[in-house]
Amino acid sequence: MKELNRHLKALDFDKILERLEGFASCADTKEMVWEVRPETELANAETLLAQTSDAHALLAKFGGPSFGGLKNVNNLLHVANGGGTLSMRDLLDVASTLRALRTLSDWYSQCSGLDTSLVGYFNVLTFDKYLEDRIFTSILSEDEMADTASKDLFDIRKALRNKEASIRDKLDHIIRSEHYRTALQDAIVTIRNGRYVVPVKREHKSDVAGLVQDTSDSGATVFIEPMSVVEANNEIKVLLGKEYEEIEKILGELSAAAGLLYEDVKMSYDAAVYLNLVFAKAQLAYSMKASLPILNDQGIIDLKGARHPLIDPKKVVKTDIRLGESFDTLVITGPNTGGKTVSIKTIGLMSIMAACGMMLPVADNSKVAIFKNVFADIGDEQSIEQSLSTFSSHMINIVDIMAKAGRGTLVLIDELGAGTDPVEGAALAMAILEKLHEQGATIAATTHYAELKAYALESPNIENGCCEFDVNTLSPTYRLLIGVPGRSNAFAISERLGISSEVVDRARDLVSAENTRFEDVVEKLEESRAQMESEHQKALELSAEARLEKENAQKMKDDIERLKNEEVEKARNEAMRIVERARREAAYFLDDIEKMKKEQKKAQDLSKLSADAKLMIKRHEGSLDDITNPIIALAMDEDYVLPRDLVVGDTVVIADIGTTATVTALPDKKGMVEVTSGIMKSRVELSKLRLVENPKKKQSGNKKAASGRGVNRSLSSRSDMKVETSVDLRGMASDEAIMTLDHFIDLQVRVGIGEFTVIHGKGTGVLRKAVKQYLGRHPQVKEFRLGTFGEGEDGVTIVKLK
Questions:
Q1: How far apart are CA 54 and CA 39, in angstroms?
Q2: Beta strands 294-296 and 319-323: pairing type?
Q3: Closest residue by Cα to residue 258 from 138, 106, 127, 69
Q4: Which residues contact 127 (CB under 8 A, 6 or more apart)?
Q5: Could you tell me how far CA 787 lies from the centroid of its own chain?
Q6: How is residue 510 annotated by DSSP?
Q7: CA-CA distance, 724 to 349, in Å (whole number)?
Q8: Within a 10 A sphere around the Cβ of 625, how many other Cβ atoms?
Q9: Distance from the first to the final alpha carbon of the chain
């Protein structure tokens, strides 16, 4: 594990890594956490951050993947790949890793439709479910192999159980026998040296014929293997040897199969360990309620609503920090415990975390720079062993920093110039800032020196900052204010704590007039800032309210439009159903008339009745179309101007009623135009007419079209109706079937269907023959054929119309 340098430790980066380690699952990932270091190249940092962001999105949508059971079995598989045999414990670890890899791969396969920067790592994952299942079903624990691991092992153990049962039966007979009761120490069967024996009193060992296998510690009991079971025990010994050999054989086979996966599993394991690290970063981001910062390599830091990640979320105060854009040096002043050190630590820690691919506890659209190096001199590093004072310790650190700092580096110094004479310390602090600025470093420093406030005001690219302090409560607010120099507030604090006004006034008199004027200016600046901030907050609130009202109004408008469209569509669909039912009833009515023509004697009268009925239906079809496709009346457009003067014969639309008409006389002096619509002739104001430049001709008696400015009348399209595309003739007599088919073809022609299916069944073929003959002479039939496999074969006929 690489040691963190003192600059990273000074910024508490080791504590961030401790938190990150807590989200890692496997041991190797926990070790990898401590290898994490900030990237110095923008592209590399953006890649790491994109991976964390993608993992964060996957967690939000699908929950976190499981890395449980993931173990480093690379060495074990290397041994197996070289021909070695793994133990049952080792093989269980291999199966556990294979299961973890499979689970991880299955989880990502469920995240369909997401193309993430992590896809390459998930695609590398290799597993073998067959081997995984075989290991888990063959090995019950690290000490026990399942009977079902192989057929031979099953047979051997079955023979063992039978032989053991036989021996126990014989020994049970002995210990229950009256003959041996006085000779036995206890009426039990036990095992010694892997052989079944009975405990016999030492003085009666000659009463039981057999071999002595063991003696008790006291010597009072001897364990004798009766002669009647010696041969059976020998057979058990042989079976146990076979069992051991079979287990070794199974372990060898499983090890060989695992060894073949060495390279694939090694690569998959490395990918899984890295994925565990990426998802640990994503879980850390969730715990901090972090967001994705915008990275740059221009030294620009713009943290919005930043929260130090190591401060209790219930106590931490959000703050805005800017550095590197309009100024590259920030000098933060103010009282102790006011939050100055936390501010510069926040700058450094956020920069390091972003460079490591971690999301930050900041508001959206925050910007963070990627630096080549981050140097920090923070905290009291007084060394008794080296006889160094606080001032000396800081100076040693600053000397090292100045030797390494340059363009693309971030320098953070706490209490610059402290620990020595104030006048000399302030001068030294200004000189150090100048030198670091000349070297191109981005700097944030804290100080108590008033001289540095004036220095920052007078110097270009250097900005004052302070941590806000509430004099009324005598407590800091921990908010960083950019562009405002800090005030000591010593007099105000002392007065509120009880120092007499006489003493405070005398202290004010002792302060130089120039310093007093400076403090007064700072106070006025602070009051102006507070007032402007209050007004800005009110403006933001009003803007938010206006935006919310606008969104609500738009939503209401959209809802009304949607409801209107739904009601129109609902009414249209209902009208379509009515029309379809009317047409169907009319078709059945025509069929009945045709039947009556054939059955009744008064053919002439019935023919006339049929013709009258057909004429009546044709007349009403147009009105049925109008039900489903009503003309939409034109809105009166006051700005409409005729593109040209009207001439007799022009087609126009009467805007207020949406009726199409033809001009039959030109406008008179009053601007009235004579128009004819159907058999109706009327006079209409010229302003209410809309010219139709290219009117469509009537297609049929029941189809009309009108076009013009603001008009949208669609023709009734029978192809939009729900019409059956198959007719079932099964069970009908030939005459009835042909009449039904004739009507069905007529319906298909009228609604514009080009192809349909006739279902006649296979049966005797009589109905199929009649259908074929009828279709062959029908004038509207283009071609027909029997169905193919999947269409119904000989039981159907596919018909195409002209």
A1: 19
A2: unpaired
A3: 127
A4: 98, 99, 101, 102, 105, 268
A5: 48
A6: H
A7: 72
A8: 19
A9: 83
Q: How far apart are CA 246 and CA 466, in angstroms?
A: 79
Residue linked to tokens 């074990």: 76
The reply to whether the predicted model has a pTM over 0.90 is no
CA quadruple 469, 473, 475, 476: dihedral positive or negative? negative
Give the whole-angstrom CA distance, residue 163 versus residue 173. Answer: 16
pLDDT in tens, 46-82: 999 999 999 999 999 888 899 999 999 999 999 999 9
Kindly give the pairing relationship between strand 796-801 and strand 781-786. Answer: antiparallel
Token reading at 4? 């963190």
DSSP string, 246-273: HHHHHHHHHHHHHHTTHHHHHHHHHHHH
Q: What is the DSSP string of 267-330?
A: HHHHHHHHHHHHHHHHHHHHHHT-BPPEEESS--EEEEEE--TTS-TTT---EEEEESSS-SEE
N residues, the chain: 802
Average of per-residue pLDDT across 144-173: 89
| Range 340-360 average pLDDT | 94
Can you say whether residue 671 is alpha, beta or left, with left for phi > 0 and alpha for psi between -120 and 50 degrees?
Answer: left
The Cα 733–Cα 766 span in angstroms is 10
Cα(393)–Cα(413) distance, rounded to whole angstroms? Answer: 13
Do 61 and 109 contact (CB within 8 A), yes or no?
no
C-alpha span between 668 and 666 (Å, rounded): 7
SS3 (DSSP) at 331: strand
Backbone angles phi, psi at 319, to 5 degrees: -145, 155
H or E stretch including 201? strand 195-201
The Cα-based distances of 553 to 522, 547, 564, 705 in angstroms read: 46, 10, 17, 38
Which tokens is 116 given? 């993430």
